[in-house]
Amino acid sequence: MTAPSASASQEISTEQVNLVLDAALDEKEYVDYLRHRREESTQAPDIAASRELTKTSCPIGLQVKGGTETTNLDRISYPHVPPPWIERSKPKTEYFVALESWEGTVEEVTPEGIVARLVPDKEDGEELSVTIKREEIDDDDAQYVVPGAVFYWRIGYSQGRSGRRRSSVIRFRRLPRWTASDLRHAEEEANRLYELFGSP
Amino acid sequence: MHLRPQIREHSVIVVGSINPAILQPAWLSSKQLIREAEAHEADIEVIHKEVSEFDIGWLKLTATTNRIQLTTEQEPYFEATRDLMIGILSILEHTPISGLGINWGNYYSFPNRSEFDRFGHAIAPKHFWSELLEPRTSRVSITSRRKDAYKGSVNATISPRDRLPFCAHLYVNDHFDIEGDEGLTSTEAVARLSECWSASKLVPDQVANRLFEGMKE
Asked: ipTM of this complex > 0.85?
């Protein structure tokens, strides 16, 4: 994208604003959005700075101070125009508090579910072998339910405005599938090692 | 005093030469890095060749031409956040990476005003500031060396927030200095992230526990 110069018109050309999805903002909203983000740009590449802090309560001891959202649109140079007010994403009102956490490995798949070995997150926890019913597993994860698959299991509660509710989340690990190129490289590496060390 | 964080957040950031337009929910789903339903229900803020930003419920992705940031506030998805970055970098295998950060945020809610203030005074004793009128703690930042062999720093910041009653936010930025003009290959970045993530995850709790212990002293 060619950055418009400061002396250029405040209008941004269609080529410069090439929205990809219909669901995205229209052109004017997008330009406003970029201006807004640029206005907020700071040098700190961290999430602490990406949270809005607006209140200055806490009169004693600790004091809340202002912060800004972080982005890096330095390559885009727009004439200075006061940004319109745009609603920032608000912190989620519901959050999950984990009481127990495990990393699981599927050992066996049965018609009823899976038999898995669980390694706790806690250093002093003990490994467990458990049977998990199939209903506990999201349909979208069904293809990952094979021996050797890794999943993460959290049991805790969700805290929301309406109170707490018990919650259990199982998420299977998703990594890119092996491509033909990956397999070819692996085979080449195996051949190289075989040449180097020979057969056992 | 022992406090358990009420809310935890996590983000992984890579800096490099990025094509944000490709980082769309549909693309992530097509690569099976996220669920199809998550892609369909994604809340898209903007997707453009210069910036991409959307939320899939448990994760917010922000990408510009020089960085990708994945952020979650849902503890059950911390590993999934790491895996998603690993998945993206594995697919974009020719992307040079010039920076990597693993970040953690914990929100603690103190039982009352008195304990909250006591904590603020403990981490920044006010008798050193007695020349100032009613000195208060607004933000304390500490930077430290890495415990592993990599170059970089571990930076901790504690500051008050209004998200919970009597709330303090501990933020830990586990930062890697990537040396050299060429940076890391994405494969090397994946290896670095995989190797260091679990140890990094422990840091905020270790720091917090020591701070809370310090209130007794």
From this structure: no
